[in-house]
Amino acid sequence: MKQKIVSVLLSAAMAATLLAGCGSTAATTSEAPAAAEEPAAEEAAPAEEEAPAEEEAAPAAEEEAPAEDASAASSELAYKGEISMMHFSTSEEAEGNGGSDAMRTTIASWDANHPDITLNQEVLANDDYKTQIATYASADELPDVFLLQGMNTISWVNQGLVLDLTDYITGSPYADKYNMDYLVPFTVNDKYYAFPALTGGTCTVVIYDSALWKEAGFDEFPKTWKEVEEAKKYFDEQGIDTLAFGNSGQWQLNSCFVSCLGYQYTGTDWFSNIIAGNGDAAFTDDAFVAALTETQRLFHDTGIFNSDFNAINNEEAREYYIAGDAAAFIGGNWDADYIKANLDEEKYKNTKFAVLPQAEDATKYEKFQNIGLGYGLAINPKVADDPDKLAACIDLVQTLTGPEFADYVGENYALGGFTKADFDLSAFDQYVQDFYNFSYVDNKGCEIYDSYVDSSVWSVLNTEMQEMVNGDKKPADVAADTQKAYEDYLAGK
Questions:
Q1: Per-residue pLDDT band at 132 (split at 50, 70, 90)
Q2: Cα–Cα dist 402/434, whole Å
Q3: CA distance linking residue 59 with residue 94, whole number of Å
Q4: Do 260 and 443 touch, CB atoms closer than 8 A?
Q5: Got the DSSP string for 37-75?
Q6: pTM higher than 0.85, yes or no?
Q7: Are 77 and 392 within 8 A, CB to CB?
Q8: What pLDDT was estimated at residue 374?
Q9: pLDDT digit string, tens, across residues 206-240
Q10: Hey, how many other C-beta atoms are within 10 angstroms of the C-beta on 140?
Q11: Contact call for residues 354 and 287 (beta carbons, < 8 A)
């Protein structure tokens, strides 16, 4: 078999656990080639006509390549060998997840178009991917092509683990269609180190059953947490949870809750200053401590969430909503895609979307959700030792973030990525149109915390917030410990 894929499925037992509760790849299962597993929604768009192979070879050192020659967009590449790639678009993840489905479909298309290249994929579940890729980075054993998380960009660039892709992005044949705003998490000193990948969507959306909430006395999802707490009385009588949430991976509380709730307290300048590291903002600032305090109150004191929120992940929590055991669920755009594919007809018709309710003592920012592209396709600098192999890797990442990907994800899911695409929104049903408008039209956007700064900072915050919402740690102490990790990170930059 030409293509080798090693996959750790969402349900696979891990051999060992690390800080984030994620496992190593010791226990793996073989997965059939991605091309055989794609949903038959619609055939992927054909690749655009590409340049002849003799014009595509990139130099070993990217700074020597003029921008106009930087692309490697050709179906006939000089390289004949193996490319290792690591990502988290498992077959299970791709069930209803537009970004992962499009990723797998486009990978399969590229692979079929390059029979002389063996693409060796290591495909892990999301939580396991974050742990394993960090392990590879520590050992300087990253694969040729991998998904780089924005929060790791600066430190990994400083360690020499990521290739400068500036010329290949600005000189790409698709550059005029790129949404350059998505490059911010992958930019260091005005250089670009990854092609923003997957889809640009929200990390924080309340997905709710409008019929259930109407029975509880609300024509739309409550605008304040106080009203949510009032609705709990009705849902308790029905024997269901008011809200479903999963935080066993620890990142969920950061990405899908606090990085949105926090803006209600801090406004927009606070996090911009945190990113800049200019000394004008700290995690110990009263506004951020207030956000942590409200988070603790909501999860620990009110009872509006499922009691096992710290023991399950978001994939398990969304099943509570699908099964009717929770009146609403808080997650990201990937969850909305999965839920869409798994609801019965009546619940599908009744499902709507809302922003997080407003906290009573927060006044800075309203009616918003956090949105962005938190991952980018990066390349190991060692690849540049072989110009032909580098050209092939560039061709791969340009394809996986280019028009073929964009057309597929737009036409099949009404989602957008790094490359802009035109599609007919009216061709979709009300659920899809509503979610598109929620994500891109009706609400303000704010940054996703862990797309920036550094994983060493978020590791402290995420771990201690999990203790905090259990009632085992004070918000002020969490803030102080996070600030210490942040100052250590700034000192080491």
A1: very high
A2: 26
A3: 35
A4: no
A5: T--SS-PPPPPPP---GGGTPPPSSGGGS-GGG-----S
A6: no
A7: yes
A8: 85
A9: 999 999 999 999 999 999 999 999 999 999 999 99
A10: 11
A11: no
